[in-house]
Every structure is written in structure tokens, then in C-alpha cells.
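Re-run with default settings, no changes from the original entry. Doing this only to confirm the output is reproducible before filing.
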Amino acid sequence: MSRSQALHKLMIVIGLLFILLVTLQTHASPIHHKLEAEILPALKMIKAHGTLQFPAKSARKINFLLHKDLEISVHSSDDQIVRVQSAKSSENFSEYGLTLGDVDDQVTISFSGIIYDPVQNDQSNGLVGPEGATLFGSTYWYPFFLDQHITFDLTVRMPSDWIALSQGKLARQAEEGDFKVMRYLESLPQEEMYLVAAPFFSYEVETSAGKKVRVLLRKDEPALAQSFLTLVPEYLEHYSRLIGPYPYDSFTVVENFWETGYGMPSFTLLGPTVIRLPFLLNSSLPHEVLHSWWGNSVYVDIAGGNWCEGLTNYMADYWQQDKIGLAQDYRLKSLISYNDFVRSAPEKDFPLREFKGRHNSSSQAVGYGKSMMFFQMLEFQLGKSLFQKGLQEFYKNNLFKNVSFKELQQSFESVSSKSLDVFFKQWLDRKGAPELSLDDVRVMRWHDGSYSTSYSLSQNQNDLYSLKIPVSWTLANGEKVTQMIDMDQSTQVFSFLSSVRPVKMAVDSEHNIFRHLYEQERPATLSSVLGNAQIHFYLQGDNQQAVQFAQIWSNHVEGKTTLHWLDKKIDLPAEGAIVLVGDDALFEQFIRDQLVDQNFAVDSAQMLINGKSFALHEHSTVLVTRLRKTSQPVVWVRWSADNNPVEWASRLTHYGSFGILVFKGRPVIEKSSWPVTVSPLQRNL
């Protein structure tokens, strides 16, 4: 995710408190910060002095925020700074009032103090310490003017074995005794100023377009660095061609000293485990590179909806799956997530235009999943060429501006010469999704030997959608044909003409439409358990690891959890998800009965899954299915001796889109789901 989006979310919360102050500020031109900062790691301290240059004719009274533990002074004779509001217990900033004199629009200041917000649960607002300095806009380590873009000239003084990074062009790097000095110039309007520094190992290449690609690691690992130096230039070239020129002079992959996954303007900040994940190179890496376009150069007007995460997800994560032929699976997983975490709990649903940021699984299902599908459907409707032109138009017209879905709509309407008002309103301003049903399918043969197939399609939700729906036909000679239909009524009758008899039809079989799924359409996945309103754990009371596993999952889910101590049989609840925890003969037989129609077998030594054999003593497994009588989701989790179930339990919550998981030690070696063979939106003719 974009770190700036997290800051935006905070700004919404406190924005009402400062609305009067915001209206006094000047937005036409950025404030220019010229600062010389010194990092004192052993003291957990930063010192800085310099000037703030305000746009001409700025308001003479302007308020700003500064870290609560920093002291600030003004040194220009006709300017004044006063503390307006001290930090509250839950805040890391105090509010100050700045009064500009009549001489000019420049203020000379100095500030210093300790910044150290300890890392807890991989969260920190920023800190300076012996291990490094990581400072965000939301650290308020410099005077932060609410809702105001900035440019800057930042010089950083630090220990000689350290390297500093900020946005902008590296203009100077020099050794001065026991210290190193680095200077960054940023002339492009920014939402915030970052500063990251530590004793890094640095690696660098230059792209064919003259852009620097750097990797900053905490250990000397040339092979790891090379993997990024190879792929980042390819991603920069790809997105430059697709959207527009990369706006910054460089892109840097930086290893943080706690687990993060942030995309900042011109760099990404990744935690020590995250940066070494093998799948990161083709998943999170292009996502964070793309944020330098979406979110970090075209900014988000959060009041009008966060369009950025869905578009980035579509153009990065979805794109990578499309490259390997798994785009349909990715769309299905997004629909499953929505059905599990939102449809099952309607009170958690909200219109996409109201999405501000991710804070739980249900908000992610809307803000990332539904939003990704929104852009996929927009491209499906306009075509690839017009969709790409719309992105280029949007980027060109809104570079370094705060914009919303409104500007997106204007760009796509401009290049397509079509009104997209109905499309944008139905997907952005409504909760829920369409629910389709297929009825009355009839095949007729005419005297000339041709065939006419009629069918009725209905929308079963209250508010009707205007939909472009693909209907797939399989003919007796093996030919496959796709029919595109337009639907905007509650029930419509359509027909399909063919010279060869159709033998099968399927409505939206590849999941191109964001819609409700039938249970029969979707494989059983872990998210159907984790997103359930009621979760029932079954375990042996004397199995302490099983108890700890259940407790960890209880802390990760949003539904109500109940523990059942195992007796001679499993007394099933009337509703809710079922979690069987640990190795037990009752569990083994129970799952065998539920998977009787799948390619599955298990005995005391091994487990057979879809033709593959896994020894129980060296593999940990997760199997998700549905009860044959009630369709309630059920999962059986069991682990081998070389896997720590307490640590494993937390990791499993990140595999929600799978129904079969096999681990050998820590690594997952099998990820899949049981196949689905029927659907109410299909007919064999």
C-alpha cells in the first residue's frame, strides 16, 4: 500500500479540527523547505535548521503540525511561532501557529529533539535510533502544513558509514571527517517529505532512459540486490510505456529494520522478511513501483474515494497473474473474498466511492477486490486501446494533483466520447452486487438445419444494473463461441443462432462481472471460514498447541468464535464454519466422508491429494470443504512435528483464497482448491 494513503486516512480523522486553518492556506503553489538536518543515532535525536519559503501573497497566519517531542524556534526577526495545542495522549504531534511578518514570505527556523516511536507489532510512526532512521510525513519530523504540497532542498549529516535517502535528485554526497553529508533536491510537488537513513550496502544501475535504480540493504547480498536491479528497470519501462514517463530521477528498493511494505515517491520500503520473499519480485514489487505513478505523483483526493489501490492492484497484481494465464482465477478469488467477508456480513458493506483505506478483510474486499474488478470491467467495456488512452489522459492531466473518481471518469469519457455516468454511478455509489439467474433454456432446430437457443436471464437484486455479459457456447463440433449481451432489465429473453447444435452454455463463466457467486460456483476456501459470522473450533482440551492455534485464529477473525472440547463424536452446529484442529481419528474420518467425491485419501501414514502423496510425519496440511448436507464450510488443520503451529496459525490467515495447502516445514509446497464441476449459470444442452 502507499504510505501516503495511510497519512491521508489520518488527515480525514483530524481534518475537521483544522478545517478553518486549511481554508486560510494557499494551494496554488507549494511551500519550499530548505533544511539542513543532522541525525544523532545514539541520542535518538534529529537537529535541523533552515528556511521555509511560502508562495507570494500567502495568508499571514498559518498553522502547522510538528512532532510532540521537538522544540522549534523562529530566527527571522519579524516572524512568530506559538504553540496552539499540545499533543493529546493518542497523538504524536502538537499544533503550532505561524505569523508571517510584512518583510517577505520566508521564515528561518530551527528545531530539534528525540523521535523514537518503538516498533510494536510491526507498527511505528517513525524513529531515530542506532539501527537507523525511518521518518514519514506522519512522523511530523518537519513543519507539516495540512493539505499543502511542498518542494524541498534537504541536506542530511550523519555517521560516515550511513546512507540517507529521500525523494528527489541526489545532488551531493561527501565525507566530512567522521560524518557523511548527502543533499536531495525535489522540485516536483510532494504531499510529504520522507527521510530514511542507516548503515546500508548500496547497489546501483542506470536504465536505458537514464534513470537510476538503487538497492539499499542491511547486509552485503549482491545476489539479492541483482534480482531487483534486473526487474525494476523492466517495470519502469513497462509502466512508462503504458501510462507516461516515469516522473522521478531514480527508483530505490530499501530494506527497513521492521516489517513494512510501503510505496513512496521514487522508492519502496520493505521489511527484512518481505524483501527476501521469492514471490515478491513478481507480486508486491511491481505494485510498489506502480505507486510512483498512482498515489505518489497523481495523488488521491481521499474525500472523493481512494481509486488508487484498486487501479494499482489491477495494473500490477492482476497483470502479473494475467501473464501466467491465471487472470480468471484472480477474478474468482476477488469475488470469493467479497462473498466471504462482505456478503456474509452486509453491515460491513459500503459504496466503493467511500473507500478510504484498508483496515480489515471486509474493507480490503471492497477497496481492493471490487475496485480491481471495476477497472477490469471498464477495460472490458471500452476495449484495451481506449482504456490505455484513458489512463494516459488521466495521468497527463492530473500529475501532482489530488484527484478522485470524478477526474477518472472525465478522462475515460474524453477518450471514448461516451457518457460513462451510469457505469460509474452503479459501481461506485451502490453497495452490493448483481445476482444473476438463468432459466427457461430451449433449443429449437429449424428446417434448414440451423439452431436457435432461447434463454431467460434475470437480475434478482433490488437495484438493477446495466451489464455487458459474456455468454459462452460450446458447439457439437467442439467450436467455442462467445456471445455478448446487454442487460438492464430485471428479466430479459435472449437468443443464440448457430449452424451447429450447441451442447453447453455458460453465463459469465470466466467471472468478468463483479457479482454474487452461487455456492456451487466457487471452490471451498479458507476465507469462507475466516470470514464467517460464527466459527466453531473442535479440539482436544489436553492439546495445548491446538488451544493456542484456536486462540490465535480467534484474534484474527471478525466473527464470533466458540471452542468445543472433543468427546466421542463431533456434535455439529446448525450454522457457522467448523474448524477441526489437530490430528485425531475422528477428524480424519469426518473429512474423508465429506470429500468422498474428490481425489482424496488419508491413512495413518500419508495423505493423497489430487494424485499427489504427502507423508503425514513431514507435512502440515489445511483442507477446506463444505458439509455435504448443509454446505457449511469446514477446515481441518493438522501439522507435523517440524512446524510450529503457533507461528503457523498467524501465517495461514494470508492464504484465504486457497482450499488446499500443504507445507513442508515453513515453506508451502502445494496451493490449490478442490475443483468445482457444476453451476446454476451453466446448462448442458
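The radius of gyration is 28 Å. Confidence is low (pLDDT under 50) at residues 6-27.
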